[in-house]
Amino acid sequence: MGLAAAARAVGAAHPAAPPADAPVQAARTELLLDPATDEVQVQALPADTAVVLLIRHEGPGLRNKPRYVLQQYGANLHLRREVPVDIPPEYEVQRLCAEPGIVYALFRVRETTGKLLALAYDAHGGQVRLQPFDTKLCREVVGLKAMAGRLLANVTLTDQLHQTVLLLDVASGQFQFLPSLYEPLDTELTSVADRPAGHAEFVLSQSNGRKQRLQLKRLSAEHGQLLSSEFVQTESERSLLTAQLSPPEDTTARLLAGTYGLRDVHYAQGLFATDLTARAATAATGKPALRFYDFKRFKHFFDYLNPAREARLRDRTARREAREASPVHWHFHLLLHEMLRQPDGGYTLVAEVYTPQYNYSAYGSGMPLSPYSLTGRNAYNALGGYTPYSSYGSNRAFTGFRTSHVLVCGFDKRGNLLWDNTFVVGPGLVRSGLEEAVQPLVLADGHMVLAYLLDNELHYKRIRQGEPSPNDTKVELLTSANSQAEKVLDVQQPDLLPWGDNKFIASGFQRIKVDRGAERQVFFLQALTF
Fold first, then answer.
1. Which residues in 311-436 belong to E strands, given as ranges?
2. How distant is the alpha carbon of residue 391 from its chain centre?
3. 307 sits in which H/E element
């Protein structure tokens, strides 16, 4: 493919002194790639201390077939292996995922409904397997997880009304739509994979428009057989909106934590948590003990407000409580990360608070319409995103999701809230899709770092349980240790992934100008160690 890779030492040249707790930028690799002709997907393999790139190069002219190559890098970001891959030109990559030692990519033919192609790359031996699937009914791939050589793909269907999970056996080429997970598009669906046990657990939302409950389903990863099913609900005015299960590696506890609404299935009023293992002790009622935590109970949730405004808000809620008036109804949307296990045996839940963003035009007719009133809480349409325009006209165009702050909570195994903290992010953190914008990294000492890339800067916050800490800590990514000054003129597609051992891996396209020299356009990988 003619890709030039250069490993660069970084850390000497910097326009300003970094913060005292800034990460070490010890390794960097640059590829001579251009976002106009190249696409790069990055998959971290923390257990193998490796990073795998899937690169698609589009040559000049319409008749030239796109070329694909897999590249594997080690801990020092030196190139370990490069493997060309023959992908038919009609396929486009949809998602990547991994399990220890293996990276998977799933491709789709846009012009032909249901045609998929799975790629499996063995990071130990370098072998590549390609497996086509003609599913007929699959329209969009909106999620992907790997488990013991099989892929669990969240897909939308050709009727544009439903979603399901597609089980793909990469070795045999067999596939199966899982009938027990055939749901409307607006259903919230999260999952955890228990690889040692060979099954996956799913959490689904079920709503009648006024109330919402959750259903938990456990399925065999080998055949997709439904092993168990249970409901979690409340008879009060609260609705359970969405939730995450604790990691299945811990067999002593089964914690479910998520968001709930108050007389509303569109907005979150707070968080709930419940110990599902306690159901055996409450078999007489069949109801788990649900613990509810209104946002006003969190010490740091409203840190995104200035102190005076927060004080007025808390004073108003306290006065309402004193006269036993109905509680303040909050209007928040939260995107939950998978729960993280802590060394002390508890769990940490990270939740991004976001709002949809729009551009308004003077041209168009009718009144703007909130997307939440179209198809449920997430207005999730068949394109796997928010409805981009008002149904009464085109005076409002959806542009993305802005993350305002990130709530971090610590729970014990029984669902008791131990501490909370908040990372207040800058105004420029906007994503086109409803996906994680901030990445958590659990450090060896049990503490956590929350971070994201914006332009050429790493913004981060150290979380030491509920202790206050600065929200505006940032450090510029270094491009070279040479004495010659370099300036990053442009950054495209910046991304950040946890890499284990106190490391993040940063990536993206950069256009770099050398003082009194030529510009270079590169794709970079950069190791950041806390």
1. 333-336, 340-341, 347-360, 396-411, 417-424, 430-431
2. 29
3. helix 307-322
The answer to whether 52 touches 40, Cβ cutoff 8 Å, is no
Q: Which two tokens stand for residue 216?
A: 């938990």
**Helix (H) or strand (E) run with residue 321 in it:** helix 307-322
pLDDT, tens only, 323-361:
888 888 999 999 999 999 988 889 999 999 999 999 887
Residue 168, Cβ density class (10 Å: 0-12 exposed, 13-18 middle, ≥19 buried): buried
Q: What is the pLDDT of residues 152-168, one digit of tens each?
A: 999 999 998 999 999 99
The C-alpha R_g of the chain, in whole angstroms, comes to 24
DSSP three-state, residue 81 = strand
Q: What's the CA gap between 188 and 178, in Å, rounded?
A: 16
pLDDT at 222 over 60: yes
Q: Which of 495, 509, 370, 360 is nearest to 438 (CA)?
A: 495
Q: What is the pLDDT of residue 244?
A: 96
Structure tokens, 148: 């013991």
Residue type, 115: K
Q: Among 49, 120, 127, which Cα is nearest to 81's?
A: 127
Q: Which two tokens stand for residue 186?
A: 């607006």
What CA–CA distance (Å, rounded) separates 449 from 428?
Answer: 20
Helices (H) and strands (E) in the chain, counts: 2, 36
Token digits of residue 198: 């060979």
* CA–CA gap between residue 63 and residue 229 (Å, rounded): 52
| 61 half-sphere exposure, CB direction, 13 A CA radius | 3
**pTM of the entire predicted model:** 0.89
Which SS3 state, helix, strand or coil, does residue 380 take?
Answer: strand
